[in-house]
Each structure stands twice: as C-alpha cells, then as structure tokens.
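Hey,

The postdoc asked me to send both predictions to you directly instead of through the lab channel. I've kept everything plain text so nothing gets mangled by the mail client. Protein one:
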Amino acid sequence: MGFGWQGSVSIAFTALAFVVMAADWVGPDVTFTVLLAFLTAFDGQIVTVAKAAAGYGNTGLLTVIFLYWVAEGITQTGGLELIMNFVLGRSRSVHWALARSMFPVMCLSAFLNNTPCVTFMIPILISWGRRCGVPIKKLLIPLSYASVLGGTCTSIGTSTNLVIVGLQDARYTKAKQLDQAKFQIFDIAPYGVPYALWGFVFILLTQAFLLPGNSSRYAKDLLIAVRVLPSSSVAKKKLKDSGLLQQSGFSVSGIYRDGKYLSKPDPNWVLEPNDILYAAGEFDVVEFVGEEFGLGLVNADAETSAERPFTTGEESVFTPTGGAPYQKLVQATIAPTSDLIGRTVREVSWQGRFGLIPVAIQRGNGREDGRLNDVVLAAGDVLILDTTPFYDEEREDSKNNFAGKVRAVKDGAAKEFVVGVKVKKSSEVVNKTVSAAGLRGIPGLFVLSVDRADGSSVEASDYLYKIQPDDTIWIATDIGAVGFLAKFPGLELVQQEQVDKTGTSILYRHLVQAAVSHKGPIVGKTVRDVRFRTLYNAAVVAVHREGARVPLKVQDIVLQGGDVLLISCHTNWADEHRHDKSFVLLQPVPDSSPPKRSRMVIGVLLATGMVLTQIVGGLKSREYIHLWPAAVLTSALMLLTGCMNADQARKAIYWDVYLTIAAAFGVSAALEGTGVAASFANGIISIGKNLHSDGAALIAIYIATAMLSELLTNNAAGAIMYPIAAIAGDALKISPKETSVAIMLGASAGFINPFSYQCNLMVYAAGNYSVREFAIIGAPFQIWLMIVAGFILCYMKEWHQVWIVSWICTAGIVLLPALYFLLPTKVQLRIDAFFDRVAQTLNPKLIIERRNSIRRQASRTGSDGTGSSDSPRALGVPKVITA
C-alpha cells in the first residue's frame, strides 16, 4: 500500500477502535473522540487540529442536532400520538397489524428523524397491539426497521443522510464543483422508496417464520397452569367458543377437574369455574391471556391445594383476583449432577431446600405434557420459580443443583401506585371493555376497578363491562407505566382539579416521587389535613406503601413514614424542597410531562412548514433556506408558542450522537490525508473496472458500509466510508449523488446487531428481545436488502421501471390476504394451522429439539426396558384421560 508510517498508525488504531466498539467495551462517542485526539498528537503529520475540529461545525451535523428540537416539540404536544392512533385503527391479524403500523411509520420517518419517531411509537404500538391481540414482539422489531427504511426515502429522514449531505457539500464546494455539491431532499427517493418497499414486503412475507412471538429473553415454550376464575368470561363456554384457541402463542394442552386430568381436550369441552388449564406458551403471553380472560396463575403449591375440594382457608393460596401471587420470578436450569433428576416436582421440598416455588417448566425434554407437579425432572430442564423470603442464591444446595447463574425474570413486587383516571365524554374508550380499550396487558399496569358515575362500582373481574363517560378507572401502576397513562387520550387524572389549582403551567409541569420521612411533620396526617396543595403548591396524585395497597381516595390517606408520594408539580419543585424535613428522597419521573394538546395543531403546522421549505426548494432546484437554520427557527417558534420548554429542548439533544459524528469526521479526514482512504478506494475502483460496471462498484460501497454499520454506529460508518467512496466514485466518473445514495442506504442497514442502531436498541429493551431473536430476522433481512440494493444500484438510470414494479408487487402482497377474510372461519383456522405447522417445521431450533428429544427417549427406553419415558412415580396421580 502507498502510505507511510502515518497511514499505518491510522489503520492500526482505527482498527483497535473498531474492536473496542464492536465488543461494546466503550461507547463510540468516547472511543472516536479519544482516537481523534490521539491522531492529532503527531504535530499535524496525520491530521491537523483544524481539520480534526472541522467536523464539530459541519452543517449536516448541526442539522441533525437541531432537528431533535423539532421532533421534541411535536412529541410534547401529543399530536402525533393522536394521529397514529387514528391511522392504526383495528386489525384482525399479524399481517394487517404490520401493514397498518409499518407503512405510516415509514411515511412519517421520511420527514421526521427516526429516533424520536420510534420513541413515541413504542408505547402506542404496545397498547394498540394489546387491543388487537397481536404479540408485541411481532410489532416492535418491524417498527425499528420501518423507521430506518422510511428514513432512506428523503435526505432528512435519518441523521446519517444529513451527515452524508454535509460531507458531499463540503467536499465539492471546496473543489469548486458547485453543481455536484448539492443533494436535494428527494434526490434519494427514486432509489430509497423501492428499497423501503421491498424491505416492507420481506417483513410481511416472513413474519410467521422469522419474527419472534410475544416472549421474554428467557425460557420459552413453557408448561404453565392457570385457573378459570368464577367471574371469568370463559366460564360455562365451550373451549372452541371461549376465544382461547385463537390466541397467538397460547395453546391448551390439558385440563384438570375433580381429580382427573384431561389430555388434549376436545374443542367442545365446556369450561367450568375452578378448572385448571395447562397452557403451552411463553410466560408473558400466558399472563396476558390470563388477565384478558379471567384466568389466575397457579404455581406448584396452589396446584397441590387444588387437588382437594376448596375450603375457606385453602382459597387463600390465590390472590383476590384468583391467581397465585409471585414476588420475583427467577429462571434456573437443572444441573447434570443434580439430585433432583428422576424425581417429580411434587417430591422436592422446594421451599425448605431452596426458598423457591415452581411456577412453570420448559416443555419437551423427552416427555409428554401433564400436570406441573407430576413432571419428572431431567438434566437440562429449565424452570421458572418464584422466590420466598428464604431464597438465597448463594446457598450451597442451589449451586449444586442448578447449572450456571440463576437469572431474574420478572419482578412482581415492583413499586406500585394506585392512580384514578376519569373517562372524558369524547374518549375513544367509551363503550369498550377494559381489554378492548387497550388498558390490559400493558407492562406494569393493572386495572383494579371502575367507579360508575351513579356511585356503583364494577370489579376488575367483570371482563364484559363497557366503560361509560365519567367513569373513574382505578389502576395499579408502576412508575414506568405512569407516563403512558398520563398521555393516554381521553383520560384525565382524578386529581386533575387539584393539579390545575396549583397554578403551575402545563409547560413546566411534571411528576416527582417523594419518600415521606419517618420523623417528618406530615406523618400521621391525611393529605387533606396537611393542606398539601396550599403548603407545597403541588398535588398528590398517588401513594405507594411497601407491602400494602393503599385506599383509593388520595385525599383521605393517612401518611406514614416510608410512603412514596407521586406528586404533580413544577419542574423546579424537587430542587426547592431538597432539604425539606418532610421528605428523605425526591426523584423526578423521566418523561412525565403531560402532553400540551392545545398546542398540537401549532406544532404540526410548524414542522410541516419547515419540511415544505425543503420540498419547494428541491422541486425548484433552489435553496431558499438551509435546513439547519430552518430547524432552529422552527424550534424557536415552538418554544415561543408553548409546544415545549427550554429544559425539554436541551434534554432532547443526543450529545453522544453529536460527539460520535463530529469525531468520526475527523478520523475520516485523517484516513483521507494519509492516503489510507485512497488505498481502499483503489480496491473498489478495481472491482468497477474489472467488471466494467459502475453498479458493481456501488454495490461494493454499499456492502462495505453495511458491514461497517453492523460493527459501529450508522453515522460513524457513513463518515468513515464517505471519503473512500468519493475517491472511488470520482475515479470511475460516477455521479457524486449516486455515490452518496449507496452510502446512505448502506449506512442505514444495521439490522442484525441490536446495538448498531439507536432505534434497534430502543425496541430491543422495550420488547425484551434477545440478541439471537434480532439476528434470526436481521441476518436474512440484511441479505435480502443487499440483493435489492444490488438491483437498484445497477439500474439507477431505469428507476422509473423499478418504481412501478416495486409498487405493484407491494400492493399485491399487502392486499391479496384480504381474500382470506372472505373465507369461512373454519377454513381460516385450518389455513392458520397449516402455516403454523410449516413455521414449526422450518424452525431450526424446534428441529434440533425434536431430534434431541427422540434420542433421549430412545436412550431411556434402552436403559430401563419399559419402552416408556414416564417414571412410575408420576403415574396414577391423578388419573389421565385422553379426549
């Protein structure tokens, strides 16, 4: 290679930085900043300080930063949430749910930066998915992908696009090639739109096979017991009419009644109160279905109690809602040397030995489904267990019997507030059940009861009650779900009148958690007696008390030391009362500012006006105003009109993104100045010349950028690759616009690694995905889009034909399933069952599990000569009947 020691140093330390970032040891913002400082330390022989610092003032980067302000202003008004809730409507299948959710997001993210777009869409899709009965995991990865795909349709759709636009402008303006410097807002659309459409098509066609169900990151395909509550909506109904058989990710493998276990029950079986159903599925799904249909979770202890007729005392093993309570669920795997192997679950003294109670066990492992207590334990079995006060992870017995680390799965004892919300007359929840309104199944949120306007009450167990105007819904919620509840359209806090009387402008209002001091002056008094609003100019919205659910009426609660108050107050309130003797801890609740709906129209119009300045300028090939000052002026108007406050604007900026992009600019300047970029560009030039095709060179640029995007962030990948691609493009006489398009598409193609893109990371956490689940859909998606990009880049001159074919194919694939719903229900169920079998047949994990199960069963048969995999101790209790 034709570069000296400067190039060698640049390559070596840049490669080291890639390793550090790929291993996630240090974030890209810090890594690139340190790398850039190091490269400037050679007296300007690698890169001068001036060139290294130039990236911090790049107009493309400044545009990215100030567009965060615009997005924050729109989000704070709640306008986009109302629009998206209207657009989403209702859906009857995963196919239509994806079509309804992905396409609007793609359109929206073409003009609004995809990161804030995903931020406000996550809670909307979670609630909407629950209302439609669609597994949340089927929606959140496509949400991230849709926001990325939509962002490739315009030059302002993603921060990466803006970065590349800025780099192109700076490069060719400096070279006095002004005709090549400008990249208009829709210059990428002829290529980005087909790219997005074919990505959309891939998700629709493969969702049944590649997208995960509504599961956690931990054990899947569990055997879980649930009890039909007396008030359940499925009681006295046939199994086929109950709605349980239509639930995705949930199947009934058996039913226990009157001392008998019925395996594979007939769909005509009539369910009775206190029946125990044995569900095969994933914990989150089963828990949601249980809440939806009135089924209580049954652990091993409760299952034992249910073997005898219920008496008054024995019913206490269930909570008032009918389920066995759990504190903190953990997952454990039976070790190969465990003395539990060969014993049934009922024969183990779980609480005495481990301080644990079995809740569920992973199916398979060479045995048929049965009752939880009758399962014969084997090496490798994965159990979900509840913890008791006597649980100690470091106990020697636990270490000897469980392989590896016992992992926490779910906390059932999280801090809980009881919040009352009143239903407005115009609310969309009116005349809907609690489930249909989207208020069931939301993580951290549980409906307790409904107080009707006439003074009567409806318990949460009444699953058929339809909400009416002026009803008060009492909800138990953890702090994470409070923000969702505060922004739910058509609901307002019961304490809203008290909140309004504080006089605090909605612009500066948020929530704070305040822990009551044990020796404070408000202990032993009610909120009303304290005259809390008058004394503190704040309103108590809810109260949490450890180990107890406090009464619903906030004003009449007698405060105790250790109570945690949820307070609506001014943003400065926590600082002003930091040393107040009434409280020992004050903690603001993130993202708890109420939506400024009265400013919704203003916010949307201002953002639309900003986008129109770029659209009109692009159509007339004239820049009336650069997007950077346009974004700043739009944000200023949003501040003046009360769409957001200054603190919210400051916090909206992702400074790690700024530092990453700016430093990456400097590193790319170092690679270009030392000749490293030119050396790598020669490889791309050789590909183009050897294949006599500009398209081949552009494909090489796309693939190299996409691979780099999986290792780094999308912005860093674009900044590093741009000088390399630009040199190659100039040598091959490729238009700078076409070169930039290849980099823009490639830099956004971070689909396999959830940590490679900010949008991926947000849905990864919200959906509780595993890295493997991302890779299963992301790897084939990446390959598919490489093929699509190859065609698009090779036929850039024929983009009109590519557009027509893409739109026609997309329309056909989206609309063709509409014919499915014209078929009779029985035929639909048969088709669904067929595709479920196909999906299971093609699932590599299930194929391996089936083979291992057959091998284990054959091994056991050979060793005991019985030809059966069941232990004698598991037989006879209870009697098993096959329908």
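Protein two:
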Amino acid sequence: MIITREWLKEWIDISKISTEEICKTLNDIGLEVDSVQTIRIPANVVIGKVLTCNKHPDADKLNVCEVDLGNEVKQIVCGAKNVAQGQYVAVSKVGAILPNGLEIKEAKLRGVASSGMICSSSELGLPAMEDGIMVFDSSIGKLVLGKELCEYPLINDDIIEIELTANRGDCLSIHGVARDLSVPFDLDINALEIKEEEDNQLGIGRVLNVVAHEKVDGSFLFKVYDKKEIKSPFLVDLRLAFADLYKKDPLDRVLQYATYATGVLLRAYSHNCFTTQQEKATVRIKKHTNGLDAVFGSNSQMLSFVGISQIDECKATCEDERVVLEANYTHPKIISQNSANKKIDSDKHLYRSSRGSEPDLDFGMNYFLNVLKEKSNVMIYAGTQQVLQDIHETHITINLEELALMIGEEIDKNTIIKILQRLGFGVSFKNEQNIMHVKVPTCRHDILNEQDVCEEIVRIVGIDNIRSKPLVFAERNKINSAYESFKKRQMYRYKAVGVGFYETLHFVFDDLSRIEKYGLKTVYKKRELSNPITQELNTLRTSLIPNLLDSASRNLKFGKKSIRLFETGIVFDRSRDESLKLGFIFSGDVESEKISNHGKPAQIDFFTFAQKISSIIGDFELEKGVVTDNLSSPYEFARVMIGEEEVGFISRVHLEIERELDLPRTYICELDVNKLPYGRKQAHMYSKFQLSSRDLSLMVPKTLEFGILKNFILAQAPQELLKIYPIDIYESEEFGENISLTLKLQFQSLEKTLEDEEINKIIEDLLFNIKEKFGITIR
C-alpha cells in the first residue's frame, strides 16, 4: 500500500509532523513501513505557459513554442506530441540540472534556437504518466508563471510504502491509514465536504431502475451522469502514478483514485449495456450459480461479478454519453468462500473485497463525484438507486480489570475510550462502570473478541510504553475430586493386574430373580426399572459378585483351570444410591501346572487369597463376621478391616453355589473403593537394629476372638513389640473348651539390639497380664 504525505493531509493535519516521525509511528501501530522515497524537483524548473505553438520549419516532429515564464518569454523547441497553445507546463531553464544529470543549455535544433526544455514527468524524477510533457492545472495549487516547481508541496511529496497484513482491509485506503494515524497523533479526521444537489436537477428515476433478487448478499448504490467533457485533475494523475495505478482513460483514473482514497469499491457502466436505446435502463442484480452476486444488463447479459470483475465491453469510458456509477459492498467472508478455487477472471477489486472494503457507499460515491466535477463537465442526476443489506454489528463486552491483566498494566479509562472512539468504535458504559460495551465499526471485520480490542489498544499505546514484567506462569490446579477418584481406581486396577488378576466388565443391570436367590439386597420395588432392556437385566445390580461368578463359570467351561478376575464398577443400594466397589474372584488352581508342583498345583485357599488381596490394597486385618446372604460360606468368611473401619469382606463361595455352577474351590472379595487408602506415601522411621522373633503357644478359650486378644496385647506391650499374628491353631478333646493358638511376636528397638533378657522380660509381663485378664496360660 503506497501513501504520500500530502495525500494524507487531505484527511489529517500533519503539517507540523516530520515524515520520519510519521514512519516511526506507522511502524509502532503495526503498519510496517517498507520504503520511503523523497520527491524533490530540481531548482530552475518553473511554471510556464505556452503562448504559441508552431511547426518547426525543418522538422515534422518538432514544434517551436513561445513560452511565458512570468518575467520573460522564451523560445523553446519541443518534440512532445501533446504540446499545445495555452498549456501550463514545466520548463527547465538554462542552467537547470535534471535528476538524470542532464544540464540544460542554450541550443539550436535544426537551425532554430531553443532556450530551455519543456519537461515530461520522468525527466523530472516523477513516475511516467502519458506520453509527452506534463500539463498542469490548478489541482496542484495556484499556477504562477515563473514560480519554481520545487515550491509546490503537492508535487514535492514523500512517498511511503507500507506492508499490510491480510486482516487489515480497513487500511487499504488513504482515509483508512489516516484514521489509524489520527489516534497516536491525537488529530481530528477532516470530514468530506458534500455539495447539495441543485433543485432543478433531473431525478435518477427518469433514466434508471434497479431490480435485486431477495437472496442478494451485497449492498449497492447507483448514480447516473450525462457527460459533456471528462477530465482528470493533474494531481489525481500524479498520485495514481505514484501508486502505480495510472490508467489511460480519465474516467477510469478518477474511479481508481476515489477507490484508493476511500476504500469503497466503485465501477462505471455504459448506460447502453442496460438498454437498447436512450431510454430508461434496468439494472438487474441476482445470484449467479457459483454463489456470487452478479449484475445483469439487457438481454440478461452478465456484466460483472460483484467485488470480483467486470467485462471490458461494458466498462464506461470518457467517450460514453451516459454512465451508470455503482458503489458496492459485500462481506469479505462471502467473497472469499465463493471465489476460492473457482476459475473466475478477476481485477483489482478482488484484492480489496476479499480483505474487506469500506461499507460506507455514500462516502465513496460523494468523494468520486467531488473529484469528477473538479475538472469535468457533467450533468449528474439527482438522487440514488440503492439496494442495502443489514450489516451485522459486532458488540463486545469487556471487563476493564480483565483488560488490564491482558495488557500487563492498567491503562487510564479515558485513554482507552479516546483510542477506541478515534478508531471508529462505539464505547458505552451502563450500570457497571467497570464493564465497557464496545460496538465494532463495520469496516473492521478482523475485530471479533475482547483480545482483538486489547490488541488495538496496545498497538496505539505502544508495546514499548508498557512496562516489562517478569513472566509469572500460574496454571490453575486441575486436580479435583473426579480426577482423584479416577487416579485411585486406576491405581488399584494396575495393582490387580500386576498381581495376576484379569479385568472384566459387566452391565450395571442384573437378574432380579438371581439376586433374590443369592439372598442379596434388592432395590426397593418403587425404585425398580420401569422399562428393563430384557427380562434377564431387569434390575440394578447391588453387588459385583454375581456377574463375576458367571464370568468364572464361563471361563471354566472354556477349559481354564485357574480363574482370577476383578472388576471396578458402580453398584446400587436399596434406594438406588450409587457406590463404587472393587470385586475379586479366584477359582481353581493357585498356579499353572509346572515341574515345581509336579503338574498338580494346589487349589486356592482362604489365606493365599487374602494374601493376594493384601498385595493389592496393602495391610489389613481380618475379623469375624456374620454372613447375611446365600453366596458366602459361613465357615470361611471374614470382614476386611483397615484400621478401625470395615472396607469389605473375604469369603469362600457357598458349597451349593460352587456345585450349581460347577466351580472348583472359589473365593470372593468385595471392597468399598471410597474406603480404601489413597494419597501420598508417608515415610516412617525404621530401625537399623536386628529384628527378633518369639513363638508363643497359648491355651485360649474357643469363644475368645483373636482381635480382642491382639488389641489387649498391643495395648499392654512396650513399643519394641512391632507385630503379632497367629501362625497355627490346634484343637484336641483334651483341651476341652480351649484351643492351642500359636502366635508369632516380633521385637525391634530404634535405639539398640535387644538382648534375650530384655525380650524375655517383655514376654513374662505380657503372659502375666493376659492371664490376669483372660485366664490364658502357656500350653
């Protein structure tokens, strides 16, 4: 995008700001400056007026001109085709040195004296325009004969080329760049002067009618003029040449100039394309089969794809007597989606429309007419024909505290409001003064959320003006109860697999008749399933064990001899409240057939199964319990205790159930997962001294529970007694109501190696206390 300093001054007063500062500010606000070129006309090049222009007497391609330089008249021989009497031209006087190094001297051309040179644009270091010399008009300022061109600021300009990202379609115009620059410089944008239409003007309805299909996406504004003469001002031609947009046709130049200045897409059609005679024309706008809006003329001929291209046959030129002018706008998303990957010829409009053109069509059309009427003689029909669509307005609510966190520091509220308003945003505060409501201007298609608004504020304030702070990374804690529950289940599942169990999964539904047969609790009838899947799955399960038994039975039928299964899953109580359980079943052989067991492995037993469970959940105690269902054997059943809390049970399957399912010896366990330990591993002090063990065989009443005896011994013993557990039970008729219970006691001190005398003393004291309490003696 090429801009010039003097062109910007049409919209903002930057007369007191240097070009260097303008470039620095453009870089600061994100409009990166790619290059800067300074245009300065050499000294001794002045304004002259061609008084006479006659053919050279001895050269067909030369003209002898009398040129008025204000205080003198010079004879100059000129070879330009376009030189003519009455023109204001650039004259290099004798002694002038041109940019290419040529020094102007007195000369004779084919015998005719020439004092100076009438210059073309390229000879003065300006971009090439038309063939021949430059012809000035008042667009560059008052033309004073003999005044040096270096004194005309509109010609001696600074050319700035900026790089724009694809999302900044709003800056694809001089007005758009000036709007951005007005914010850091705190300048007002000059309003476009709109001349009122004359009362006696003919209305546009006499010559034009517009018909649009209801599915059209774009907005359109049409004007019509009749021409007498079309000219483009010299300044328009020069600036278009700076931007590499110079066209041969003057009408095309004015269209290009107005589009480049305002960002509004403008086209001109020959009136004849919409009618076969000089009568009222009809413009038809409807959808093309490719999804793009298209303009159609007479005989249903398609004249243009809106925002994409226009056929050459219907492009208006300065020769057309009547011209239809069009300003259009279509949302860039629609243009991009419908033009992508389609073989459609396009012109420069596509580059603008796909990035976002200016939606204010009146602004662009009025600017064009102002420039056209400056040098052209046209009769413009009053009024307009319009097809307007509702443009979606984006509204964003911003919390100023959150905005300060995004920026990294708090920006003054009034400064934020001023920045946004100068950029064209609407800003309001309602009940809460800390909540800002922002209405995004329709030309800013790239602003979608509060982060985009934050970026606008930061680029204007300047990233260098925001104090640097050390990076603080604070991630929100993602560990919650659900995550902890998942990790706990995962830990026990992995441990179960590590011990040799295989995981199985079942439905949460069960067979009500089977649950009742096993003597398990069932869901209250009023809370039973209304529409069960099948009759075999007609209730919610209250235990994992029935399904594990079924799976064990099926595995046995498949020839498996050692069946080890587990499941973690939801079970329900009578009120349908959920709880998470961990169930185990071990049936058949403890291990596979191998040499060490001579091909005859032992079957699982109660204590081996309990040891397997201990390898998964850690240490626990077994206490006597009462069987309340028909699944467990009353002779091999125990409650699982961790500390003082009961977490589940271990038992053998009742013999009748084993026989019914053709199972070998089978043990089951069901635990409440929520009661199982989980958390950080705690390190405990341990002794580096020798561990000592003693076995005691005691005569214990049959009715005395081991747990009671154990707790009493631990309560009476010193801290050197680490552990006590049974290793043998022996019964005999000779013992009467007693049994022989052999206990293993382990001793260890944190301070020293215990002597035999010390251990014996502890044992003697324990034997005395338990005899006093329970009447228990050594066997």
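Summary for protein two, as requested: The chain has a mean pLDDT of 91.

Thanks,
C.
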